[in-house]
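Structure first, sequence second, as always.
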């Protein structure tokens, strides 16, 4: 995976947030993130190599899930400590 593909991670977070605003249940957000990551991997990152696209896309999708979860937990901790 090249460093130039890393900005895709917050983009996936944004797309999943949009899907949640449109009615996607919270419990499906991680799966949606992984699927979007795989699609990006197969069609954008490695269009000539399906296996590489799936693996790198899955890694990006799961990283997006972790970015969202980590940010949410950090903000929740700060808000909980200030109250």
């Amino acid at each position: 995976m090249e460093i130039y593909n890393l900005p895709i991670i917050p983009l996936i977070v944004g797309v999943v947030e949009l899907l949640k605003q449109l009615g996607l249940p919270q419990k499906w957000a991680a799966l949606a993130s992984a699927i979007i990551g795989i699609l990006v991997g197969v069609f954008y990152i490695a269009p000539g190599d399906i296996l590489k696209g799936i693996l790198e896309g899955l890694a990006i999708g799961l990283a997006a899930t972790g970015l969202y979860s980590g940010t949410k937990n950090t903000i929740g901790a700060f808000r909980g400590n200030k109250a």
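Margin note: The mean pLDDT is 89.
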